[in-house]
Each structure stands twice: as structure tokens, then as C-alpha cells.
């Protein structure tokens, strides 16, 4: 059984309204999550995106080619049952946000960080009433408690499906502010990705690109952009 793989057994894939949301049907039978919960999606477009992944499977079922399905399963099986813990973990990134930790040198890098990151911090301060204070170096600097509270409230107001996508936006970028920049429409996902990689881009400019590191970066970029697409389809 070690070599066993799932194979496509269905002929048709469709979407139908169900239980206040949308279900994906394989030959008329609704999909369930790995934990056997009904896979009910919050919007029709998201359900269609999941359905398209199942339509695209030929022969062997390849879970790695089904990121929308994977995120939807995570929303129901992992995020919803422990929503407060997941939301709290993500909100905690506000206390150590990437945009707040600046290099002490060289001057060209510190200038690049300030030019790129200061406007986004200023936007978050105004949009959420949550100013965060940058510091130089890697030593932890406590952020204003009121700012962290307001950011946590924003995270807590998201739906489980939104949090499933938001988790990847935050964890991959190491920035709560950049994630909100994407979800609030202040930044395009590609812009936010580039802003999160300023230090890495600087290193490549100085020392050249490592092929293995470049492959890892490409995979992380794809996951970040995928999370943004999933979030946008949540409604």
C-alpha cells in the first residue's frame, strides 16, 4: 500500500448552493474535508476555483496542484475549530513586524528600507489608528499596546476562510502590516511581496543569486500570491 495513490474516479464536477454557501459536487456528491466536514464555501467564485482544481485532475489526483482546495480544507478543519488561537498568533506579528526592524548599515540599505516601508507604516497608523514604531537592529522593541489591540481586533473580525489565507500572507512576509496592505487594497500582492524581500534583494545584488535559494524564493512567492487570490475570492 506504500505506493498507493488516489486516482480520478469522477466524471463530472459541479457547484451548487448548499447550507448558506456553495458546495462542490463530484458526480452529484458533495466534497468533504479530510476531517469529514461538509466542504461549504462562502462564495460562488471560490467554489468555482475549487471545482476547477478537481476538473483539472487527470489520472492520479495531485494534491499539490490544488491550493484552493487545501486552503478551504484548512479553514474548516484547522482555523474554525481554534479560531481565537490562530487569530491571536497572527495578531502577535504586530509586535515584531518586519517593517519595524531596520538594518543599522549600510546607508544605502537603510535608506531603501525607509523609503519603502515608512509609507506603509504611516498608512496603517492612519487606517487602523495603530502606529508602530521602527527600530534599528534586531533587539525587540515593544509596540504601543493600543496599536496592538486595534490590530488584533482587525484580525479577529476576519472569517475563518479569510484567516486561512491571511495566515499565509502574514507568515510568508513576516509582516502583519503588509498582509493588511494586501487585504485592504492598499497594496497589490506583488508589491507586498517585493516589499517583504528588500533585505534578500539587497543580498542578491551584493553577492549574486544562489540557485537553490532562488527556487525556494519562487515557491514562497507563488504561495504568497496564491493566498492573496484565495482571500480575494472569499467575498
Quick synopsis:
The chain is of the alpha+beta class and 235 residues long. The protein folds into two domains: 13-62, ATP12-like; 83-233, ATP12 ATPase (ATP12-like fold, Orthogonal Bundle).
Overview of this structure, please?
With 235 residues, this protein is α+β, with helices and mostly antiparallel strands. The protein folds into 2 domains: 13-62, 2-Layer Sandwich (ATP12-like); 83-233, ATP12 ATPase (ATP12-like fold, Orthogonal Bundle), CATH 1.10.3580. 56% of the residues lie in helices and 9% in strands. The protein contains 10 helices and 6 strands. It has helices at residues 44-55, 67-79, 83-91, 107-128, 145-156, 160-173, 176-183, 189-196, 198-207, 211-233, and strands at residues 13-18, 21-26, 29-30, 40-41, 101-102, 135-136. Strands 1, 2, 3 and 4 form a 4-stranded antiparallel β-sheet that branches. Strands 5-6 form a two-stranded parallel sheet. A hairpin with a 2-residue loop joins β2 (21-26) and β3. α1 (44-55) crosses α2. The mean pLDDT is 94. Belongs to the ATP12 family. This is ATP12 ATPase.
Mean pLDDT value: 94
**Elements, N to C (H/E):** EEEEHHHEHEHHHHHH
Structural class: alpha+beta
* Separation, N- and C-terminal Cα atoms: 41 Å
Uncertain runs: none
Give the class-level CATH name of the largest domain.
Mainly Alpha
| Major β-sheet annotation | 4 strands, antiparallel
**Total helical elements:** 10
CATH superfamily name of the largest domain?
A: ATP12 ATPase
Rounded to the nearest angstrom, the radius of gyration is: 20 Å
Whole-number tally of structural domains: 2
Total number of beta strands? 6
